[in-house]
Amino acid sequence: ETGVTQTPRHLVMGMTNKKSLKCEQHLGHNAMYWYKQSAKKPLELMFVYNFKEQTENNSVPSRFSPECPNSSHLFLHLHTLQPEDSALYLCASSQTGVHGYTFGSGTRLTVV
Amino acid sequence: SQQGEEDPQALSIQEGENATMNCSYKTSINNLQWYRQNSGRGLVHLILIRSNEREKHSGRLRVTLDTSKKSSSLLITASRAADTASYFCATDKGAQGGSEKLVFGKGTKLTVNP
To answer: Looking at the predicted structure, is the pLDDT value of residue A37 above 50?
Structure first.
């Protein structure tokens, strides 16, 4: 356990489904991130939240909707996804002035 | 936009040998970090080197940074089968508004054969 917990670990969903990914950190960090990792591509930064305010949206399609109710929790709401959205979705957190991310184990998403 | 780019893409060595991975980047940075990822899992932070540092050690890891060439290398000495993983470099331009914004490369897949 790294201190960043992601659920579920695996998710299979149809293109018409709505599902949510959850990330929770118990490290007291102020910033949280969503990354997408697809095969043979670099990790893609999706969203950044700092003190629960969104500071970065890296041109992510609106079918991905983040929510950060507090500095410890981050959600990624999914709806009407496409098969190419299948990937490993990684959550990370960090603390201002202390460099380096702490990652969760990720959610392996398959869209069918 | 992609910042770090590792090479080689894949590296296979025998246990006990040293493994060297390289990373090149394009723009100025505040620091460069290396991460490790076991198959299908999250990334683990290994080591950070600041832009004003040239070399850093941590256990069997040695990282160098050449800002004039915009490149870094990660050396793992006396490799073990348990070092088998993918290794990523990530560049940080500096905290913006209190949060980092790391840009990762595609990674080097290291296989250490027993």
So the answer is: yes
